[in-house]
Amino acid sequence: MAEPITMTSVSLDDICINTIRTLSMDAVQKANSGHPGTPMALAPLMYVLWTRHLRHNPVDPDWPDRDRFVLSCGHASMLLSSALYLAGYDLSLEDIKQFRQLGSKTPGHPEYGVTPGVETTTGPLGQGVGNAVGMAAAAAHLGALFNRPDHRVVGHRTYFIASDGDLMEGVSHEAASLAGHLKLGDLIGFYDDNRVTIDGETDLCYSDDAMGRFASYGWHVRQVEDGNDLEALDEAVRAAQDDPRPSLIVVRTHIGYGSPNKQDSAAAHGAALGEEEVALTKQNLDWPGTEPFHVPEEALAHWRACRDRGAALQAEWSERFGGYAAAHPRDAERLRSRLAGELPDGWEDALPTFESASGGMATRKASAAVLGALVARVPQLMGGSADLAGSVMTTLPAAGDFTPDDYTGRNVHFGIREHAMGAVMTGMSLHGGVRPFGGTFLIFADYMRPAIRLAAMMGQPTIYLFSHDSIGLGEDGPTHQPIGTLASLRAIPNLTVIRPADANEVVEAWRVALRTDDGPTAIILTRQGLPVLDRSSLGPASALARGGYVLSDPVRGAPQVVLMASGSEVNIVLAAQRLLAEQGIGAQVVSMPSLELFGRQPVEYRNEVLPPELAKRLAVEAGHPMPWYRWVGSEGDVLGIDRFGESAPGADLFTHFGFTAEEIVVRAKALVER
Fold it and tell me: Which residues contact 527 (CB under 8 A, 6 or more apart)?
């Protein structure tokens, strides 16, 4: 246990720092839930960064050239909430008192869109590091595109704080490696080296040379031996700002600083200190107040100077931007429009149309054609793949590569780093000015799941291109054949999953994705070729926007059964419809590319597509059947797969697993004859 701290005199700096510590202790104690130790340890760093270096304006948290700050160790949320309140953001002391309570502006982890000034939702460790890399990448891209020798209008930095846990999680390694390769010099991170986790001291499981590791990634690395040394912290930040490489500042801190019985112990990590220990800690810090949530006037006044400083910084930038707009009016308008999330007028006119006479086409190839058509019309489209550009077909033609030598390029080579790709994409979207997309095989969506989930939670319009969508990919076998992946993606709230049936449905999927500004979209694509459906006798592909639609009515008479499917199975269902007609059974075929979009439609429309009186329904999809039971009802059936695949040619596997017109006929007749 650490020796008690004795403070013979308390400076204004100390009072400002201890205000963070005491607010954090009191809020966690009142909620009887939370993590007080890390805010107590990092209070000096937060004070130095936010009052001396961070370019931010509490009155206008969204001004475009503000610095971004990411608290990747989101469990330390009271560190950020305290700083936001003290600096003068739209957060009151009453909000601090409502920490972790229902509907409050101070949730248990920072949440984007809930608390003013929070740049990203953090909590799953390591994701914030990836988000920060994405923000820095977006800033570098926009700066390269829009800055001029005589006018620098994109000049902000991205800062993050990471814990031991962040650096243990693999996503931070991937993201840091990418950032070092890209030489993102306006990215500055702090590693809180407090050497304590929930289970105890970090040497139970962790003996990394973090400084050596980041140095090997190409980062500028610096150490501050005493996290309470304000001048050493200040000097380290200035050195990082001057270095052309991304920077990591390793700060040795003491978790639960000031607590006479819990400092430097796991007891200060994830639980309230206890009323007695809070009182002893305040006494140890020479704290002037005895009541909870006491905020000294001099501390609040000093912190609130951030408002005047921020207003001056923003005014200076606005003046610079005015000069830029006068000298480069078209560029200024383009930048304004992009930061506002606006798409160029007429972008949809570029979308292609595919004729059925063109023969078969894998939907991944159709997606590539859409990207080729949009590259000039939607310049904010920026993305790539996890080393699978040739397989998922994500390359933007003639758009250049995003490299440390040329940040104007729009093709991002994420490398074999799906974890980082997802988190970086989210950061790019949060920064604004770009519409990120990223591709990999569908099975590897599992590597990206935390980032996809957080993007959905934050309503970020990221676009995921997942190809090789089923057993149809063939010989690579069960390790690469997704069975439960579609079902698991559909279970993520606010994620729109679209599995197009042909090339024209791919076009419409892209239309939906780019029109969507309040959540991510996953477009699921085939490796194998599919027929381009003849729309002269079938429902229009534009109906994809409603999630499901009647693709084909019975040849004659009223329908006796509904056949619904997505993706490559739609063509098989159409073949089954013809076979059933030969046997006198009328089948209505429904293309259901997006269960989420269909579920959002008015009940009247859903009843048109799936009439309640037509209870004999068969859903067909080469994946886990679980998501379909809502739509087939108690009298319906699902032809799916609930086991792992096999290694064989795709066509053979479709036959082996029963995805044939003949098997669909058998299943449909069984329903009709019940």
Answer: 362, 364, 391, 467, 468, 469, 472, 473, 474, 650
Range of the domain at 514: 347-530
Domain total in the chain? 3
Phi, psi of 148 (to 5 degrees): -125, 160
- In a domain, residue 171? The reply is yes
Answer yes or no: do 429 and 568 share one domain.
no
Residues 601 and 547 sit within 8 Å (Cβ to Cβ): yes
Instruction: Specify the DSSP class assigned to residue 245.
Output: S
392-430: string of b/e by CB count within 10 Å (b at 16+)? bbbbbeebeebeeeebbbbbbbbbebbbbbbbbbbbbbb
pLDDT band at 9 (very low <50, low <70, confident <90, very high): low
SS3 346: coil
User: 568 and 516, same structural domain?
Assistant: no
- 119, 418, 505, 621: the catalytic one is 418
Checking if the pLDDT of 289 tops 90, the result is no
Cα atoms in the 13 Å half-sphere on the side-chain side of 648: 10
Task: Clarify whether 418 is annotated catalytic.
Answer: yes
Q: Which two tokens stand for residue 164?
A: 């031991």
Question: What is the mean pLDDT of the segment spanning 448-469?
Answer: 98
Residue count (the chain): 674
H or E, element range at 466 = strand 463-467
Q: How far apart are CA 430 and CA 139, in angstroms?
A: 11
pTM metric for this prediction: 0.97
> Which residues does residue 644 pair with via DSSP β-bridges, in sequence order?
none
Which of 501, 530, 559 is at the close of a domain?
530
